[in-house]
Amino acid sequence: VIRPEPCRVCGSRIRFGKTATKCCQCQLLLHTKCREQCPSLCTPRPHHHAWPREGMLADFAPSTPPLVPALVVQCVTEVETRGLTETGLYRVPGAEQLVREWKRKLLRAGGTLPALSSVTDIHVVCGVLKDFLRGLKEPLVTFSLHPAFLRAADIPDDAASNTALCHVVSKLPPANRDTLAFLMLHLLRVSHSPDCKMDVLNLSRVFGPTLVGHSTANPTPLAIMEDTPRQCKVVARLLSLPPSFWRGFVETEQENLVPM
Q: Are 65 and 253 in contact (CB under 8 A)?
């Protein structure tokens, strides 16, 4: 395993350098030890009208704008309600087992999500949000636009780089664009909290691999090494864009930004 991914049987992450088993037909990935529990047929199992455990971002988005998944809204709302005084927000990991359990609860719940107020450790809520974004079939900036984001962030002139990034953001699928805007506004609020001690540089290091990722689902080790510093650069540049740009995507309609 080059890029850590969740086992589709037990849900826990298969870490870098570990051996895993992958189906050559449906691409299902799992720990070697979980093979006995794997369904023998390549057919999707019913989820009782719940969201898929993995998918494109649009699979989780509401039908009316702004197209931000309820899980993202609920996690962000909870973090902003009681997490903006926590040092190392998004950098300090939450308990992996609790993150896994709550992510599973939220994905199985579908549209009406259980309250996150009962989660004592706010870092667990942060972990759920990051794990959800990492588990998507492609990163938020999408595989096809990934090179364009890197090129725009590499432009030396700040004004020209910002103009190019705004243009590339506008080409994202609507759900990806709205969710990226919602997250950027949230991360800007985190960066402005003196208690969190998470400036733009720290946040870009945390969210670069998650939001930008790579241009393919199976990058080579060389691509991973080359992309990592550029991923951070893209997020830092995105966070330097004016908040009014991001608000233009998510403040047209507000009803979906209130968690159930």
A: yes
DSSP conformation class of 133: H
DSSP 161: H
User: 96 and 39: one domain?
Assistant: no
- Say if residue 132 is in the same domain as residue 187: yes
Is the pLDDT assigned to residue 256 strictly greater than 60?
Answer: no
What is the domain count for the chain? 2
Non-local CB neighbours of 46 within 8 Å, separated by 6+ positions: none
What pLDDT digit, counting tens, does each position of 209-222 carry? 999 999 998 888 89
Gap between the Cα atoms of 58 and 140, Å rounded: 10
SS3 state of residue 14: strand
pTM of this structure: 0.78
Residues 228 and 197 in one domain: yes
Phi and psi, residue 200, nearest 5°: -60, -40
Tokens of 247: 């608000």
Closest by CA to 112, choosing from 67, 50, 59, is: 50
Look up residue 6 and give its DSSP letter. E
